[in-house]
Structure formats: C-alpha cells, structure tokens
Amino acid sequence: MENGITKFLKKDYRRFQKQRLGFLCHQATLDTSLVHIRDRISNPKMKLKVACLIGPQHGVRGEKQDNMVESDDFIDPKLGVPVYSLYGKTRQPTSKLLSEIDTFVVDLVDIGTRVYTFIYTMANCMRAAKANGKKVVILDRPNLIGGLQVEGNALEEGYTSFVGQFPIVMRHGMTIGEIATLFNEHYGIGCELEVIKLKGWQRPKYFDHYEDQWANPSPNIPNLNSCITFPGMVLFEGTNVSEGRGTTKPFEWIGAPYIEADPLAQKMNSMKLPGVYFRPIYFQPTFHKGKDEVCGGVQIHITDRAKFNAFQSGVRLLATIREMFPEKFAWKKPPYEYEFEKMPIDLIVGTPRLREALDTGAGYAAFEKSCAPDVAKFKKLRKDYLLY
C-alpha cells in the first residue's frame, strides 16, 4: 500500500517546484521510514519553495494535550519559514498566510469521525483557496478504521460548529481525500482540488493490516483501539463523565468518581451488544475530569471489529449512566470548541434530540432507530465520491 506522501515524494513534487507551497501537517505526517514530511521537503535536491507550515489542533508538533488549548505561530528552526497555527488566534488562513503561498499541500492523519477537527481545518483552507485563487493538493492516507462501516446520525441544521461543519454521519468511512472531494463538490466549496491517491488500499482493512508504524494522530489517540471506540465514546466529552483523558486508555476507559463499576458493566453486558465486552474497572486520571480521584467505570473491549458499532455502544453507555446515577450525572456546560451557547453534547451529537430524550425519560430507542435512515442516506451520497 502506498500513501499519497510516498507518491508525492517519488515524483509528483516535480510538478510543484515553481509554486510557493504551504504544508498543512502535524506530528503524524510521516513517510514509511518514519521521517516527517518537514524533513523530506527540506532536501535541497527537491528544489521546492516551502513558504510555510500550517498546524491544525494540537499543533504541528502535536504537543498540545487537551481540547481548547491553542498553539502560537513560530519560525521553524530547520526550514526558517513561518509555522502558522489554525488552532490559535484564528481557525481561518490569514491574509498574510495566503499572500505567501500558491498551493496548500494537505497531509493529515485523520481518524474517520465527524467530531475531529482536522477535516474542518482542511475545509477552511479549501474555502480560503477558492476565495483567493489558490490550489489545494491532498496527499491521501487510509482511513485508520476502514472504509466500509458507517455509523451514527447526521448532523442537523443549526448545530454546525468546529466539530461538525457538514451534515455527515458520525463515522463516515472515507479517506481524507474522499471527504475533501465530498466537501468540495457536493457541499459546494468549489476550490481547485487535486487528490494524490493511495495505491493498493483496500476498504475493509484497518491500519494494522499494513506494515506502517503507529504515530498518534493527536495526543489522546494512543492506539488503534482508541480510534475504533472514538465515534461513540467521544459523546462523553459532553458530560461530567471522564472519557479517559489523563489515563493511558483515553476513549477506552469511561467512568466517574460516582459510578459503581460492577453494576454498570453488568447492565451493559446484559444488552448483548455485538462485538464488544464491557469490563468493570477503576482508574485515577492524572489530569482532566476526575483528576486524582478514583473513578469507577468500564473498559470497552472490542471482540469483533466487523460487528462493533461504536456510536451505538456510546449512546447505550451514556443512557445507562444517566439512568443509573441521575443525581450525580450532568451535562457539560458551554463553551466547547468556540461555541459559547449551545450545549456541548448537542454539538457532538449534531442534534439536541438525544439529550432531550434522555432528560425527559423517553430513552434512547427512538433516537437510535432514527440513525438507520441517516446511515442509508449517507452511504448513497458518498458513493459518487469514493476514490477506491
């Protein structure tokens, strides 16, 4: 399997030697030898005009641990060019940045979930490119959690944010090049876009099918399991329940100081959800929710990837904790990802319907049932934009 970056470094770079290039990348932007794109494009033999590097959330170097922690601009000590943060003073490319480049080159390792800001930083660059006559080139990479499974509801009008700009489902099953094409053509961004495609990628395959070494896409995605569970366990970012930040198992360990682990695990396992086992655990986060407190909860053990539905499991676990511990459970209050009015859980889910159903006692059943037509509609939509 050959990534877009490999094809770019082999031969495609020659087509861009006369252009001023801005590279949107992060710490996981590596080639198969684990060398960062920054170190490859600095080779004088390539004769590239590298104007700047551009960083998404967590920074070009991936050092910013938590959400809502901004990065500053700085000068790269090796290349001697500016590094512009699009998760700092602005989330939009500035006029200064745009004046310095002709083409955005995008190489980001994404985890295939609607609630992940990298694809929206890319979309913002695409909009700026359209408005200013620039080009966007995507160095495509595989979807880490495969290209077949699709999960969750579609984001509703009125609930767009920096964790959801378009009405797509929670787990979309597309590569970053495919979803860029969807944004550009179906949702009307309309920039000059080129995708340097993958070679040899198979949609059913997860990241560990290939021989590439793992590098964290962001600080709290330490392994492939955390990617697979993320489309459901990210819901807990909108609550006072820990999603495992501050531990070695973010998005795999879910809990809170008020939760009794054994009854929760028993209740969850009694549902017999396919492809997953909920093991009772206790953990003590070193930062974030529950810092220095012992939290009871569950570890999400994936027993069958093909059958596991992370979003369904997240909804069921959220509803069960809400039901079992009603006096201590709480929804997180704003702000969340630069939105200061709407409830964080509504932005994450893309609708208030789940929160309202659980708060009124109506339960998750109707909401869960409504996801099926959203998945079917999205699968039909995405067919025209699949590149593999």
Verbal overview:
This protein has 388 residues and is of the alpha/beta class. The chain has eleven helices and twelve strands. Strands 3-4-2-1-5-6-9 form a seven-stranded mixed beta sheet, with helices on both faces. Helix 2 (37-41) links the parallel strand 1 and strand 2.
- Taken from the alpha-carbon principal axes, the silhouette is globular
Give the mean pLDDT.
Answer: 97
Which residues sit in consecutive blocks of at least 5 with pLDDT less than 50? none
Distance between the termini: 12 Å
Strand arrangement in the largest pleated sheet: 3-4-2-1-5-6-9
Q: How large, in whole angstroms, is the Cα Rg? A: 21 Å
**What count of helical segments does DSSP give?**
11
Largest sheet: 7 strands, mixed
Oligomeric form: single chain
Helix residue percentage: 25-40%
Structural category = alpha/beta
Instruction: Note the beta-strand portion.
Output: 15-25%
Strand tally: 12
How do the SSEs run, as a string of H and E? HEHEEEHEHEEEHEHEHEEHHHH
Record the SSE blueprint.
Blueprint: H1 4-10, E1 20-24, H2 37-41, E2 49-55, E3 74-75, E4 82-85, H3 95-100, E5 103-106, H4 118-132, E6 135-139, E7 151-154, E8 169-171, H5 176-185, E9 192-196, H6 224-233, E10 253-256, H7 261-270, E11 276-283, E12 295-302, H8 310-324, H9 344-349, H10 353-360, H11 365-382
Parallel strand pairs: 1-2, 1-5, 2-4, 5-6, 6-9
Antiparallel strand pairs: 3-4, 7-8, 10-12, 11-12
Helix pairs in contact: 4-5, 6-8
